[in-house]
Amino acid sequence: MTRRRWMALFFALGSTCFLIGPFPGYVQLVGARADGITFFVGSILFTAGGVVQSRLAFPDRRSPGEGRAGWWAAIVQSAGTLFFNISTYHAMHTALTSHEYDRLVWRPDWRGSICFLVSGAIAYRASPRRGWLPVRGGNGWWQAAANLLGCIFFGISAVAGYVVPATGSMLDQAAANWNTALGAACFLACALDTLHTDEASKMPLRRRLHELEDELERDLRTVL
Fold it and tell me: Given the DSSP bridges, would you call strands 129-130 and 133-134 parallel, antiparallel or unpaired?
């Protein structure tokens, strides 16, 4: 399996954790403690995917245009996953040590959400566009837009999540949970598409061509 598919697998599994974690039915079924563990495991998987993504983008860190943008998008997103590691660990620790049920087990960390928004904006700005809209055609042409949308959902969830403790509003709680799930669904869609096509929107085309050349060269050496 290629490194892109490993990256996509980590993101897919992590996204699944963040997709099911916010649902009230899930936390009622498994309890707040298991739900906290679900979020923490998901954040670790996100970080693993970010590490692989950063490694893939590393050779193009000094390249002009799309290559450098892909590097910065990967690095900023990886930083965001580290903030999520901290906040999900805190939520898990609280759930494991507290006997009280927390109706909002975890809310997206505001620092991590900002990193995700910046990363998504960088990737979308570098993607092929016609005005503000992505150019259709080719595998994964929609990924940059879906990824940015997921980042926006996480940002909304972070804002709503910080309102919940102050107001106790069930509407704010629902907004935090549903926007977290919607954001995770967007990330999951991108990851599954990359698993299927072995192509990612944040992987510069030039870098992909170089990898294909290397693969062809290795195949020729094997045959000869």
Answer: antiparallel
Output the six-digit token pair for 3: 């490194």
What's the pLDDT tens digit per position in 72-120? Answer: 899 999 999 999 999 999 888 887 887 554 556 677 788 999 999 999 9
User: pTM for the complete prediction?
Assistant: 0.81
Radius of gyration for the alpha carbons in the chain, expressed in angstroms and rounded: 19
* Of 204, 214, 189, 212, nearest in space to 64 by CA: 204
pLDDT, tens only, 118-146 = 999 999 988 888 887 888 877 778 999 99
- Which tens digits make up the pLDDT trace of 46-64? 999 999 999 988 887 776 6
Which two structure tokens, joined as six digits, stand for 54? 């950063």
Print the SS3 string covering 32-49.
HHHHHHHHHHHHHHHHHH
CA nearest neighbour of 190 among 4, 1, 2, 3: 4
The DSSP line for 84-97 is HHHHHHHHHHHHHH
Alpha carbon distance 21, 106 (integer Å):
9
**Burial letters 179-195, b for 16+ CB under 10 A, else e:** bbbbbbbbbbbbbebbb
CA 205/CA 22 separation, integer angstroms: 36
